[in-house]
Amino acid sequence: MAMATINNGVNVQALLDAREALKGSPEAAKFTWRASCKWQSGTYSKANVHGFFGLGQEQKHKTETSFEADHPEVFASEDRGVTPVEYVLVGLASCLTAGVAAVAQNRGIQLRSVESTLEGKMDIRGILGVDSDVRNGYDDIKVTFKIDADAPKKDIEALVAQSQKRSAVYDIITNPTNVTVAVV
Amino acid sequence: MAMATINNGVNVQALLDAREALKGSPEAAKFTWRASCKWQSGTYSKANVHGFFGLGQEQKHKTETSFEADHPEVFASEDRGVTPVEYVLVGLASCLTAGVAAVAQNRGIQLRSVESTLEGKMDIRGILGVDSDVRNGYDDIKVTFKIDADAPKKDIEALVAQSQKRSAVYDIITNPTNVTVAVV
After folding, report:
1. Helix, strand and coil percent figures for chain B, each rounded to 5
2. B75 touches chain A (CB under 8 A)
3. FRET partner for A180 with CA separation of 20 to 30 A, picked from A14, A157, B39, B69?
4. CA distance A20 to A32
5. Residue of B23, B34, B39, B109 for testing the chain A interface, max A β-carbons within 10 Å
């Protein structure tokens, strides 16, 4: 493989070096990601993301980012932002996409385009409390990738499979994750 | 309770009416939320949210919203957006916050402010493939609410508990959700 000519913009060597370095210092691998949120009115809120902890110290994104969330007009709300469940789809899409790029770089596959569409099916009788047998969250999420790359289809499918295997958000959604909620 | 004087900006009557209406027409309760995503370069991607399906027909948010995601510089990336796992925290924060406002309205509790901070702990040896016993996703998420409202602390705690009970994103994270990934 002509690895030198492949450039998906991922510094795979740095990631492989990090993997080696973290084998000897597991404490540095402990990250804490953070968000804060302020209620505005009704179902409308604003969340901010800026600092996080990792490699043994406080870190900051280059910029602080603010996100607006709300319920749509069909829920008798004012649609001042996307819904909370759509943020979960954004997280899943971006996690799998970053993974595809990283794995492709590692395997010497040049990507030309990676597009995906996500659909999450939800029966809102759950959140409205109509039927206690209906769950609140998604029944099912379907992700469809369309990838143009210098590789046969089976290798492209293998990229996506490996991305799933190493995806943080895929894991968070498909497996139970402990959440504790406190009021101070 | 002086219900008429309580205004958190949530149209609870419309939600109660919707609950009644959906008892007789479960098909209308079937929603599909969507996002699309395009890889940009490296671990950087842009996701869009606009249309969704519900109440038996195609719907659209008032505006299309675009979200940028990337990995930070400590992951040898360029930090052109927040990380995918931080989007999950944004979704959880906004879902629980909207729930607190809706439940408070229904219970006749005037909110003055609702703030939350979220922390998700993650051992990045999982996503880097250092140790197969380390999971990719969050080990644990902690949500801390600070709420100023016209109610005793136990009633405020009960608001938060009820919001958790009806939260779509809390359910998605704490329980397993099926995700299928296809390549076309």
Report:
1. 35, 35, 30
2. yes
3. B69
4. 21
5. B39
ipTM of the complex: 0.97
Euclidean distance between CA atoms A61 and A81, whole angstroms: 23
Q: Are strands B140-149 and A178-183 parallel, antiparallel or unpaired?
A: parallel
- Chain centroid offset of residue A150 CA: 25
Alpha helices, DSSP H, located in A3-83: 12-24
The pair of structure tokens assigned to A59 is: 């870190």
d(CA A137, CA B88): 13
Do the Cβ atoms of B44 and B50 come closer than 8 Å?
no
Min distance B66 CA to chain A CA atoms (Å): 9
Determine, for residues B62 and A79 on separate chains, whether the beta-carbon distance falls below 8 Å.
Answer: yes
* Euclidean distance between CA atoms B170 and B167, whole angstroms: 5
Alpha-carbon distance values, B36 to A24, A69, A120, B184 (Å):
39, 18, 12, 15
**Any chain A CB within 8 A of the CB of B87?**
yes
Predicted model pTM: 0.97
- In tens, the pLDDT along A146-183 reads 999 999 999 999 999 999 999 999 999 999 999 999 99
Q: What is the pLDDT of residues A10-69, one digit of tens each?
A: 998 998 898 888 998 999 999 999 999 999 999 999 999 999 999 999 999 999 999 999
CA atoms within 13 A on the CB side of B69: 31
DSSP lists the bridge partners of residue A32 as A53, B121
